[in-house]
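hey
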């Protein structure tokens, strides 16, 4: 049996006291002393001392097994702030900023005051239910994922016995429905935006499938109008109230692809120096500012509401509709896996399959017209 720590008799209240020097606090690094108390008003006997020694040894064994859940009165807020600081070092700046937003603006205000060791699944469920009244299930699902990841760290560090998020059903977002313009609506938009600052970004999204961040990071030097190609070298994304430039999120996103010939004359006419789509001060434009300006323009010209990102969906849909293979579409869109393209645009592929099947109707009809007998006698 473990005999670390010490046990002594305290005359002031006539009781045995077990004393143990704790390992450093996982959050603060501070070392505290833990006391185990026996009953008061007892005689200084060997039997009473052994009782407290047994309690102290039991506690020490629990600590050595890695279970610190009953040791520190760590709040959810205290743990999350420490975890976030450490975990953010392994994240991209934009992702770290998103985590900080969810933790500080969603999680801590709701459950930050609870002790980490006392947190119950029903409290997490109540938190999610309240969030679902204000936000979409997709937003609450991201909150759940971050909280689950944080509590995994708490369990590994012995601050929780189990991850309470494992005992809670994750929010289920409704299936995402892509909303895209047809060719007529897209061309009407181009007519409205012709000659305005929005013409080029709309062409790049709708005809080339570029993401907003790719367009805002694009420079005219990245567009070779002689060869008719665009190269994505970096993207512009918001991070903690500023714009940062970074490499594309994957090797597939850092791509060079051909420009549709029909838009090259417009690009040549608009060609300038520096950024293709700068802010008024010539610097990188904030993505949110750009999207608001796009939506305002839709209202101004009485155009049907869509997100700017839906123009990328339009591009993908048109490629598949007019016979571009899903593999080639994935390459142009910068998807790492063809399966991503198939999953997102499954409805288009299904429609193409039906169209292909219906083309076989002509064969059946011709056979019937030629007098071929169909069926069984």
């Amino acid at each position: 049996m473990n005999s670390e720590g010490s046990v002594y008799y305290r005359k002031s209240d006539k009781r045995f006291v077990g004393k143990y020097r704790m390992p450093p606090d996982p959050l603060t690094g501070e070392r505290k002393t833990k006391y185990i108390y026996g009953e008061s008003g007892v005689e200084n006997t060997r039997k009473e001392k052994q009782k407290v020694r047994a309690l102290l040894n039991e506690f020490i064994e629990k600590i050595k097994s890695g279970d610190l859940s009953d040791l520190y009165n760590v709040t959810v807020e205290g743990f999350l702030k420490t975890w976030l600081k450490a975990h953010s070092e392994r994240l991209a700046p934009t992702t770290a900023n998103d985590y900080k937003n969810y933790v500080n603006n969603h999680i801590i205000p709701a459950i930050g005051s609870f002790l980490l060791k006392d947190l119950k699944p029903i409290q997490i469920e109540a938190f999610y239910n309240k969030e679902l009244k204000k936000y979409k299930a997709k937003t609450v699902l991201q909150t759940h994922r971050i909280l689950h990841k944080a509590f995994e760290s708490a369990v590994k560090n012995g601050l929780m016995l189990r991850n309470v998020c494992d005992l809670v059903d994750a929010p289920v977002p409704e299936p995402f429905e892509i909303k895209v313009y047809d060719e007529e609506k897209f061309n009407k938009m181009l007519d409205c935006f012709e000659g305005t600052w929005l013409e080029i970004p709309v062409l790049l999204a709708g005809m080339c499938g570029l993401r907003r961040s790719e367009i805002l990071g694009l420079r005219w030097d990245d567009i070779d109008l002689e060869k008719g190609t665009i190269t994505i070298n970096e993207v512009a994304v918001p991070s903690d109230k500023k714009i940062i430039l970074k490499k594309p999120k994957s090797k597939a996103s850092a791509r060079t692809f051909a420009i549709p010939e029909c838009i090259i004359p417009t690009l040549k006419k608009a060609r300038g120096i520096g950024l293709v789509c700068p802010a008024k001060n010539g610097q990188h434009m904030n993505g949110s500012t750009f999207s608001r300006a796009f939506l305002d323009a839709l209202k101004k010209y009485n155009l049907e509401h869509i997100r700017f990102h839906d123009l990328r969906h339009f591009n993908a849909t048109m490629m598949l509709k007019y016979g571009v293979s899903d593999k080639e579409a994935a390459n142009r869109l910068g998807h790492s896996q063809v399966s991503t393209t198939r999953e997102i645009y499954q409805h288009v592929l299904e429609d193409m399959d039906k169209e292909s099947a219906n083309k076989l109707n002509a064969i059946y009809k011709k056979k019937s017209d030629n007098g071929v007998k169909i069926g069984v006698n």
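The CA atoms of residues 70 and 137 lie 34 Å apart. The longest strand covers residues 15-21.
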